Input
Amino acid sequence: MGLIGSVRRAAFTRPHLLLLTAPGAAEVRIAVERFARRRGWPLADSPADADALVEAGVLHGEMAEVAETVWRQLPAPSIRMPLAVPAEVEPGLADLPARLASWRPETGEEPEAAPELSMADRAEDRDGLKLDVLHVPLGPLLPHWPEGLRLVTRLQGDVIQHAEAEVLGLGPDTRSFWAVEDRRAARRLDAIARLLGVAGWTAMQWRCQALRDRALADEPRDRLVGDLKAAAARIRRSRLLRSELTGLGAVAGTGDAADRLHQWLTEVVHDLRAPGGELAGSHPSAAEWLDMLPDTVVGAELTAARLIVASVDLDTAEAEQRSTTGVHHG
Amino acid sequence: MSSLVPLLAMLALAVGLLGAAYGLSVLLTVRRRALVAGPFLSGGLATEHAVSRFHVRWYPVTLLFLAFDMEMVFMYPWAVVAADIGAEAVVEMFAFLAMLLVGVLYVWREGGLRWV
Output
């Protein structure tokens, strides 16, 4: 047992975390991200890669069902870890390697058989290929995705033909973490990090997350502004990023994804220099974004749709319980 | 008899390695039964099977590919002996290629190579 035990301990020195965040629980998510970044623990993209399902915040209604579904997809050994408040993050996660190493299967657990699924039907599509119509939900458990957002899409090939947006898991006690005025810079940095994460610029994503955490920690602003300007200049200079984002998700008032990113960069620097004050430019509310999002992603390819959603600073905790629909016109 | 020794050694090695892999898996596994899980749809459930039917347009392309694939299979042994046999082999191979090309022209005329 000594050998097996040490192999297992070695395997779980850096557990892979699958993070499911409730709307409004951004503070817990940020604490988990910071912990994972410091220890070098990877955040898993899917249950197959995960050692632990971390539930940030209190999961209400359909979010609880999502957690249940995903939990059943985690391969053993696995641990489910609800973290309701930020204070629970450090002690809870610090225990994780030991708990995984000593994990034992519970008796009487029988895997369920997968349900029989019918084949998809075909329909007319853009390229005249009559591809299968697949109903694919995007979210709520996706990396770099707004908390609790679910985009139910109808896909043919990788083109979205129809989309519906809804916010899951809004409870009576759901409050937006970002509603406080002096967290606005941190919120934009969070959005920038998310967009860079989807775009694949991981190093810069981490840099922005570190800046976000420093902004939340009330560090002296002078040094922060200097580092921030350097990062912003790097992001602005990247031609690859610009060509990736230009023309994506154009919405009247805010421009396309590249415009929104540049707007955020300007705001963050401005906000940290002089907190508060009015924002230039148009900032649709969460409800307005939920209205516009389905129409914006329809006709886009799956990868483009991921970038479009990440280019929208949508605070799902501000939304009322509702769903919206977008249909492909022409 | 001695000619069988390498064969038996290879067999022993294969069985040994396979046995080691299975043995290691039994030693290290935490749950014998494999996990039965649906596809990961970011927390949702699949509503239809992912096996999809393709438009009939793809099939001529497949057949066309197969024709040229088989041609390559013929050309490898041909290339080995072409120099010894001489002009006769070259003429035969080009006649064969010409016949294949007729197929391509036919598919072209029927519009099988038109994409959209």
